[in-house]
Amino acid sequence: MEANIIEYIRQAQKGDQRAFHALVTFYDNRVSNLIYSIVLNRQDTEDLYQEIFLKVWKKIRSFQFRSDFYSWLYKITVNTCYNFTKKRARVRTEDGDEILDNTIYPFEDNDPNKLEAVKALYSAIQNLSPRLRTITVMHYLEGTTISNISVILRIEEGTIKKYLFRAREILRKELAFYA
Amino acid sequence: MPDIFEKEISEYSGSKLNINEKWLSYQRNKLIGAIDQIESSNAIDFPFKWIFFKFQEAPLSFALVCIFSLIAGFSAGFFFNASYSGGNDRAGLNIMDMLSSDKISTVQLDIDKNLAEPYIFKFLSNDDYQYAGRENDQNVILLLDHMLNNTANPGDRLKLARKLSDTGVTNDMALSVIIKALLLEDNTAIQSVLIESLQHNETTTARDALLQIVIGHYDAPVRLSALKYLTQFSSDPHVTQILKVVSISDENPSVRYTAEKLLMASIKSVQTGGEIKK
User: Fold this and answer.
1) For chain B, is the Cβ count within 10 Å smaller at the N or the C terminus?
2) Which of residues 60-99 of A touch B (CB under 8 A)?
3) Helix ranges, B48-171 (H)
4) ipTM score of the complex?
């Protein structure tokens, strides 16, 4: 970890809100990206952003520098999003086109070809169940290994492999239309 | 045939989308406000005062006294609770089990203020099972929480919000449940109706919830709704301070104007209420 980050963490652990704000500024782009990939809804992304960083603020004293700070933050983010998608009996999706348009705001990207590819992928991922979506995002988009996913979500590795296989099959069918 | 999935994944994984910096900045500011509120708030009026202390710095004896007090308090509450009865206890256990195991799928609520137990919940997945209770009943609060957060249809949520608003909830725990649902709700029409349910409540819980909405909600009409109901707190200096800030800094001109009008009205009521303070 960078020396600055370690120092910010230490100060935040003592209750320094400015140091914590610096940490948030450093990581929140990646965290927001991850949240949106799982929940696919701008309002939920905003709500979860607040919930996750408030949790981090409350728990930061328990961070013991045994791992990278982002790994610790990543676990909190994924678990919070995963529990959110499980508990939410009602699905907050708007009409699919509205969600895809929302990727322009608050997200921006200058390459129109990449944007089309990402839109196709988001559209396909949107149709997965919350569990499949979370695991798909973690493994394929964030590059998390199956063993780490197993530890974070407390699901057996064999089960995760089955979910990933199922997700791939669904996504292949969906994305075949974009060939 | 190319594997489209692998192609899309490889194109995406190479780089991430950038988040709009203005959106991030807004979220960071909101977070600062939320952390400030957690750190400095002593004003929220709950039935129990929560005292934050650092476990690792507190002496062991202090921690043991706190744990013993909690256990003694819960035991006393369990044995001496005036609303505790055998029938309700059995129904209560069933409801807790049903809620935790997701057995309840559809619940309907009727509120009849003329009855001793006005909140009547009907469970449509179990034949003719219903539960009735008062506002301060723990099961009523659990069921309200369940319904407010698990009713899929926005029309049904709106009806539920309207019932609660028309009833005028006064119990602190029930109010906390409504406030939590209000802050989680994404439909602004339902949010506005839930805000109305705070209108007859003059507790600091209601005041703080309204202030939180006025300062931090993204939707101007919702902020305006919350402002309207701050009138009942017009003599509260805390509210006056917030109104001063909002009347200058809110991005919406209607919100700024309404805040200014409220501020003028509250100053006038202070002036006409007694000697003019120089």
Assistant:
1) C
2) 61, 87, 89-92
3) 60-80, 86-100, 138-150, 154-167
4) 0.75
